[in-house]
Amino acid sequence: MTGNVWRNPLHVWGVEGAEKDVPSIPYKNHQDVWDETTVSKAAMLPVGRLRYYWKWGGHGALTWPRVRYWPTRRRGLSIRSAYNPKTMRLEKTIADKRPIWWVLGLIAFMLAPLVMPAAYQNTLLTAGATFAIYAAINLCWMLIIGTAGIYSLASYAVVGVAAFGTSYLSIHLGLPWWALPLIGAGIGLVAGLIIAIPAIRLDGFYYALLTIGLNELCRVYALQSKQFGSSTGGLYGADTYIPQSWDQYDQSLLAYYACFLVMLGGLALYRVIDGRRLGRILKMAPEKREAFAEATGVDFRRARVWVFVISSIALGFIGGFYSAHFRGVSFSIFGFDTVLLGLAMLVIGGIGRAEGAVVGTAIVIFLDKVMISTGPLRLMVIGLIMLGVVLFLKGGLFGIKAQFRAWRDKKKSERRSMRSEKGGEMLPEEATETRDKDLIYWRRYDKMQRDFLKTLISPELIEEHRKKPLGQHSEPLERVLLYFRRAPQVDKYAIIAVEPFKAFRIVALSGQRGVAPRIVEDKIYASQEEAYHGVFLRRVQDLLES
């Protein structure tokens, strides 16, 4: 074949009517089609991405001193060593930057009173103290829901019982303020043991209903009890750590930093429980794998009860501090709206994360306490934020990063599967599950071959096959026919003689032994050549539509 002239090989043997040179159908060189198909038309960008943090060189096998801070097994900074593929140099980078953000956030909270506007100092200091108390409560609650996996809604009930009990003792027995948190811890221990007993048998939705019923029971009892201030709306007059002789600013500043210390204690408790043996046991035995955990010797039920009891002791301690901070307690601590606001704090930040509990509390307290001038509108905003997080985010605000990466990887896979420059007919998800990787390359080659054969289909080629379905053909037609002949037997077109030498019909083979072929159409062809051409037209149509 030279140019558009085809040399007939039968001419060498002296066959009658076999011309030496026969004009061929114009076609594009298959090598050009192959090159255009295999070349990538995607924009080539510089390899790598910008780094906004410093990477320093490694020092041999010793990457970093593995110093762990007591009493957890965590390191101050998780340093990872890896070779840079571009520079071939050993580099060290910080794998987990959360400790840095924690330190910066806590320092900012400590220095915030120095930069507060003078006109809003009292409001912001009061809101900051309230935020710190509720953050400590939510950190303990996060241990119960996130670490232990117990859906308890009685955390504020434990705080309220401890606050009412210590306020009553301080008012009637004259207990000093420093004894209130300690007594509150004891009350929290008793309340935690009582509430933890049903957790052994109940779980999930039923336990949540039970605990919210206990919360409402405590509210109704305190509301109707004369000893707990049913006529005054609560118990007030407990001893406080805030000197009454100080001015308003000094009192607010002392309360601010005292509540900050309580929040640090709650954060330390969360790190100890979640990062030590109890937390690791519960992470080894997640929900729906309890039988496996028991078989491996992990007593997860006892671990869950221990976490619940320890958290209840901490909640009781916070309840005693609550009464010493506010000089008493009101019935609103048992209110259903308080429980809902607490749930909003956890959901917005993200369940199972200490930073989620703190940041979610900050958002809700800012809207509820600082934006109080907006009236009921602020509650609507909190509800809308919570609804948006539930609908569009899987892990709260701190799950956005992982969710965005998953969405980005999904879009990358979709773009790779839609790109026709590289060829292939297998999605990335299907390719990863295919054991025989040769199948991937075969499909890619088949895609390239079909792209080339589509350029050969023309009215002249179809007319050439109509005139002579069998025998020697031009090179473009031979290429197309060879591809059709190599097709698998499943649904491969064939002809069947309805009446020998008079009537033919097109069928599709089943590809299975013993299964008869199926009729493709009702058209009857008068000759075998017409039936062959009908099969050819069907195969061409399938090729062009593929």
From TrEMBL:
Q: Which residues form the N,N-dimethylformamidase alpha subunit domain?
A: 441-544
Major place of localization? membrane
Spans through the membrane: 99-120, 126-146, 153-171, 177-197, 204-222, 254-273, 305-323, 329-349, 356-373, 379-400
Q: Where in the cell is it found?
A: Cell membrane
Q: Which InterPro entries match?
A: ABC_transp_permease, DMF_alpha_dom, LivM-like
Q: Does the keyword S-adenosyl-L-methionine apply?
A: no
Q: Which UniProt keywords apply?
A: Cell membrane, Membrane, Transmembrane, Transmembrane helix
**Topology in the lipid bilayer:** Multi-pass membrane protein
Task: Give a yes or no for keyword Nucleotide-binding in this entry.
Answer: no
Q: Which CDD domains match?
A: TM_PBP1_LivM_like
Q: What is this protein called?
A: Branched-chain amino acid ABC transporter permease
Please report the organism this UniProt entry assigns to the protein.
Methylopila musalis
